[in-house]
């Protein structure tokens, strides 16, 4: 094995910090790793599990969106349409989130799932060509059937199904994960770190044939060291996605962040423009853009649109556009292509975390990292358990020998590493 750079008492303290911080977050990291791996191809898996909700037969032209909205709100009288998410593929359904009609004004979507309030369903799937409602589901209800599986995993991943408290908790887990990753690197850092053969290659080597404990230890260290740069990206993006108010000031210290335009509510339009007219207005403002979602907000007199422009790192777009319902005039536009370096960095957070920034290759990489992180957590638990059991056995033998006068229990020292 390679000689390690960190020695003596500093190593003992770092080892204790790494061990106990790892034990503190092991269960939560296991949940995040497994659910994150399953979510790497979230919408592809969801569509495969629920073809009756997602699959449509492409037609010659789309049904009027005004009629679709009226039909959905008539079908669910206690709801109002929150957001229409347009399919990228022509054979996919239009996805519509529902809001509680009786909820206070300004109630948000809550982690992107649609804040359903007391509604029985908060997500509807519609054939965009015929306007036929294909089905509905409640993404805020624990369900293990096919329609409810992916929404269940998403909320478990981000918040453990504990709402905002869970979001904060998983953000704290991500902070500890980020810090303990650096502690693990310090423990693995070889003295000859400039030399591949005498340093890093031995860090990645596995000692086979020397017992299960050493093999698990080597697997834990090798997998952690080999994937550390990518794991740090996942950890940091996790911190931002759960605790953005913690990360933004830090990023803003290095690069000033653009202040999003504050869009005030407009007087209620007597004759609001149609969704099609709002899309046409968006095409005039951002001619190279593709609208990925549209949210009619009659209470505030606005259409809120997310637009993808070539060069955006998020497949759903990084441009946010607000249009007045009365005339389609722009009242707010947030774009990152002309923003600061800090704006660009924050725009990368979710696409990096999900792998969507690099398409299928990125999603496959996130899937693999989720499985590797699962293995790292498991091997870490095994190493800790075996070490604890070995220490208890050795302590028992020492006490027995001391009772017989053959050994002073204070003379034996246990090594930190195998």
Explain this structure to me?
- The N and C termini lie close together (10 Å).
- This protein is α+β, with helices and mostly antiparallel strands and 418 residues long.
- The protein has three domains: 8-40 and 161-256 and 360-390; 47-159, no CATH class; 261-338, Nuclear Transport Factor 2, Chain: A (Roll), CATH 3.10.450.
- It is built from 13 helices and eight strands.
Q: What is the H-and-E element order? A: HHHHEEEEHHHHHHHEEEEHH
Shape: elongated
How far do the termini sit from each other? Answer: 10 Å
Q: Roughly what is the average pLDDT, rounded to an integer? A: 88
Helix fraction, binned, reads 40-55%
List the total number of helices: 13
Structural class: alpha+beta
Query: Major sheet: size, sense and barrel closure?
Result: 8 strands, antiparallel
Number of strands: 8
Which spans have pLDDT < 50 for at least 5 consecutive residues?
107-116, 412-416
How many separate structural domains? 3
Strand order of the largest sheet: 4-3-2-1-5-6-7-8
- Strand-residue fraction? 5-15%
Cα radius of gyration in angstroms:
27 Å
Tell me briefly what this model is.
The protein is of the alpha+beta class.
Features:
418 residues; alpha+beta; Nuclear Transport Factor 2, Chain: A; 8-stranded antiparallel beta sheet; 13 helices; 8 strands; elongated; disordered C terminus
Question: How would you summarize the topology of this molecule?
Answer:
Elements: H1 8-39, H2 42-49, H3 51-54, H4 65-75, E1 79-85, E2 94-100, E3 123-126, E4 133-137, H5 146-159, H6 163-188, H7 196-203, H8 212-226, H9 228-242, H10 244-254, H11 275-285, E5 290-297, E6 302-308, E7 319-324, E8 330-334, H12 341-354, H13 359-403
Antiparallel strand pairs: 1-2, 1-5, 2-3, 3-4, 5-6, 6-7, 7-8
Helix pairs in contact: 1-5, 1-6, 1-13, 2-5, 5-6, 6-9, 8-13, 9-10, 9-12
């Amino acid at each position: 094995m390679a000689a390690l750079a960190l020695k003596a008492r500093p190593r003992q303290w770092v080892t204790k910090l790494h061990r106990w911080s790892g034990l503190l977050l092991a269960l939560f990291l296991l949940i995040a790793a497994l659910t994150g791996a399953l979510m790497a191809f979230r919408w592809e898996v969801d569509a495969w599990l629920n073809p009756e909700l997602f699959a449509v037969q492409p037609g010659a032209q789309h049904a009027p969106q005004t009629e679709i909205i009226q039909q959905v709100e008539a079908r669910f009288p206690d709801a109002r349409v929150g957001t229409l998410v347009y399919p990228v593929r022509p054979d996919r359904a239009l996805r519509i989130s529902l809001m509680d009609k009786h909820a206070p004004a300004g109630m948000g979507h809550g982690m992107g799932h649609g804040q359903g309030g007391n509604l029985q369903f908060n997500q509807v799937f519609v054939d965009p060509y015929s306007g036929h409602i294909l089905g509905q589901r409640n993404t805020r209800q624990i369900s293990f059937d096919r329609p409810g599986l992916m929404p269940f995993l998403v909320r478990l991943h981000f918040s453990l199904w504990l709402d905002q408290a869970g979001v904060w908790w998983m953000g704290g887990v991500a902070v500890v994960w980020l810090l303990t990753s650096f502690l693990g690197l310090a423990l693995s850092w070889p003295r000859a770190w400039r030399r591949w053969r005498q340093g890093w290659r031995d860090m990645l080597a596995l000692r086979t044939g020397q017992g299960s404990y050493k093999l698990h230890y080597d697997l834990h260290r090798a997998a952690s060291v080999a994937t550390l740069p990518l794991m740090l990206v996942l950890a940091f993006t996790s911190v931002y996605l759960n605790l953005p108010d913690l990360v933004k000031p830090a990023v803003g210290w290095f690069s000033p962040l653009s202040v999003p335009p504050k869009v005030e509510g407009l007087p209620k339009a007597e004759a609001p423009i149609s969704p099609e007219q709002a899309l046409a207005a968006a095409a005039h403002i951002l001619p190279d853009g593709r609208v990925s979602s549209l949210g009619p907000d009659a209470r505030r007199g606005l259409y809120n649109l997310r637009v993808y422009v070539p060069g955006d790192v998020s497949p759903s777009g990084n441009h946010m556009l607000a249009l007045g319902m009365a005339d389609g005039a722009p009242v707010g536009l947030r774009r990152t292509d002309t923003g600061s370096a800090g704006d660009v960095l924050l725009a990368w957070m979710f696409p990096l975390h999900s792998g969507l920034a690099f398409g299928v290759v990125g999603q496959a990489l996130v899937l693999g990292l989720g499985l590797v992180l699962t293995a790292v957590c498991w091997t870490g638990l095994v190493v800790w358990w075996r070490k604890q059991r070995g220490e208890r056995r050795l302590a028992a033998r020492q006490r027995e020998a001391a009772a017989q006068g053959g050994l002073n229990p204070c003379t034996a020292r246990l090594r930190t590493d195998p």
